[in-house]
Structures are given as C-alpha cells and as structure tokens.
Design goal:
By secondary structure, the chain is α+β, with helices and mostly antiparallel strands. The chain has a three-stranded antiparallel sheet, with no helix packed on it. The protein has a two-stranded antiparallel ribbon with strand order 3-4. A two-stranded antiparallel sheet has the order 6-7. It has one domain: Intergrase catalytic core (hpI Integrase, Chain A, Orthogonal Bundle). The protein has helices spanning about 1-5, 10-20, 25-30, 90-100, 115-135; strands spanning about 35-40, 45, 50-55, 65-70, 80-85, 110, 115, 135, 140-145.
C-alpha cells in the first residue's frame, strides 16, 4: 500500500502513510501540530488526540458529533505521551504535508478543518481496495486476486 500511496500527495494519503510509518493512532496522527515536530532531531512529540464527543440532551437525544482535541491520551496514563523518532520516509511525508498546508496549525488539514476519522477510514478502505484489485505478476502482467 505504501508503494501505491507514495505518489499521491493529498492530506489523506499523507496521513495514512505516516500512520503506517509511525504506528500511531489515527486520533494522534490527525492532531499533530507543526510545533510538535523537530526535524533537526528527527522527532515528533505525541501529546494529544482527536476524540468524537456527543452530548446527551435533556430530551434523551444526542447532539451532533463534534471532534475535539484532548490532551488526555488513550488509557489516560502518562505512558500515552511520547516522543517518537522519525524515519526518512516519515520526514519526507511531513515535508510534503507542510508544503501542501504551509499556514495550518495541524499537519493534516483540509480547507482549514481537521480531517474526520470517518473520512480517514473511508479513504484507507478505498486505497486498500485499489491495492487488492490489481496485483503485479512476476513479469509485470496484471492479475486479479481471487476473492472468495
């Protein structure tokens, strides 16, 4: 999949690639701020995550879903806060993301808005389907994977 995504320079593709290279949670990837990144030291500090909140109203209906940035990491333990080292590939992805959105606070934004987890997951499924449809044969011929 990473080979398939390498030349697709749009925020979702870049976020998915970084997701694989960093082994971080989607909610953590979505809220990486440019200020969390130290390219000189090749690190990113993961200190927040995106969460979906809904409020139960007095009439027992739920409010619309809202994405909030929380400084409480998964499991609510200090172990969730971490400095992660960046590979050459991760640095290349980060530089592409900064080039696409030079003025945004977060590394991966679309039109000034944080990407949604639903859209991230839909795009991940789309790219997975694209990779599943066509497999390169040993002599460059294209064959379809046998689906049961």
């Amino acid at each position: 999949m990473l080979t398939h995504l390498k030349d697709i320079a749009e925020p979702y593709s870049l976020a998915i690639q970084l997701f694989f290279y960093m082994f971080a949670r989607v909610g953590e990837i979505k809220v990486i701020k440019k200020s969390d990144i130290n390219l000189e030291k090749r690190t990113v500090y993961l200190q927040s995550q995106a969460l979906i909140e809904r409020t139960l109203n007095d009439d027992l209906t739920f409010s619309p879903r809202e994405t909030v940035v929380s400084d409480k990491m998964k499991g609510n333990t200090s172990m969730g806060y971490r400095k992660q080292y960046l590979t050459d590939e991760a640095i290349t992805i980060i530089n592409k993301a900064i080039e696409i959105n030079p003025d945004s606070e977060y590394l991966f934004q679309l039109d000034g808005h944080m990407m949604s987890s639903d859209s991230f997951n839909r795009r991940l499924k789309k790219y997975t389907r694209e990779c599943d449809k066509i497999i390169e044969g040993s002599k460059g011929s294209r064959i379809s994977r046998n689906k049961k």
